[in-house]
């Protein structure tokens, strides 16, 4: 079952999480504050106002989530990655499946 | 080597992490504060008092961790998922193996 | 595409993240505060001054990242693990590849 790892500016993260749940692209999104260290156009940045979104969805809904999250996202090149669990508590997997249908 | 991704109410997370380590179900648990956005019974929730537990264990101990964490967990349908690393620093993998034996 | 999950003492985490990006071992590192619960030499610890580093790199650069992060890390047995995404937004994957070349 997929978990999507995405990052966003902190002030956009809650709206993106709500967007995913309201549109049944994810059953649940866990939002975590983070600092992001990266290089852009040759300059090193240390951005303390970012967040990671861990979005719980299904294999069937993942392509929609990826496309719609990219379109809704304020960044030009957002981090959107899919990691697949090798096992999920059955009742939780059932709940995710019902919520994103 | 498995990392278990589980969520819990913030005020239960530390006790669950200690439970896993004390019972040698995990060698180490990293606990991270998060907000959780989800729908339950048709209502959208934005719960700012949650936490993610990243629990380090072995393939052998994972079935026990899953069963005992579900039993100990205050939620009816907790998020408990297993993600397998494709590589782990050898000395760390050895340490995890010794701690959960 | 690999994401490296590593932990570090909170006061070393930002320097390690900068080290990885400055040396083009990772394109981006997300640093998250955490508590770590673990047993060491028979004593249970609950260390509230730790951090998780999620480092974005390529399969080609991962062996270098692993070796150099272990050498630079203040702990004797650091948690360094590789998790592979099954899908990554194409523009983001391209950017990571360019940054760690």
UniProtKB/TrEMBL annotation, chains A, B, C:
Which InterPro entries does the UniProt entry name for this protein? Ion_tolerance_CutA (IPR004323), N-reg_PII-like_a/b (IPR011322), N-reg_PII/ATP_PRibTrfase_C (IPR015867)
Query: What keywords are assigned to this protein?
Result: Cytoplasm
Q: Which Gene3D superfamilies match?
A: 3.30.70.120
Q: Coiled-coil region(s) at which residues?
A: none
Record GO terms (molecular function): copper ion binding
Alphabetical list of Pfam families matching this protein: CutA1
One biological-process term from Gene Ontology? response to metal ion
Give the family from UniProt: Belongs to the CutA family.
Identification of the protein by name:
Divalent-cation tolerance protein CutA
Which lineage? Archaea, Methanobacteriati, Methanobacteriota, Stenosarchaea group, Halobacteria
């Amino acid at each position: 079952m997929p978990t999507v790892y995405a990052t966003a500016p902190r002030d956009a993260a809650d709206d993106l999480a709500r967007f995913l749940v309201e549109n049944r692209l994810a059953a649940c999104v866990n939002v975590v504050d983070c600092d992001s260290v990266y290089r852009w156009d040759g300059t090193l940045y240390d951005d303390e106002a970012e967040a990671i979104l861990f979005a719980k969805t299904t294999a069937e809904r993942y392509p929609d989530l990826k496309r719609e999250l990219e379109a809704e996202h304020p960044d030009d090149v957002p981090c959107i990655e899919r990691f697949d669990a090798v096992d999920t508590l059955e009742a939780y997997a059932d709940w995710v499946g019902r919520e994103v249908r």
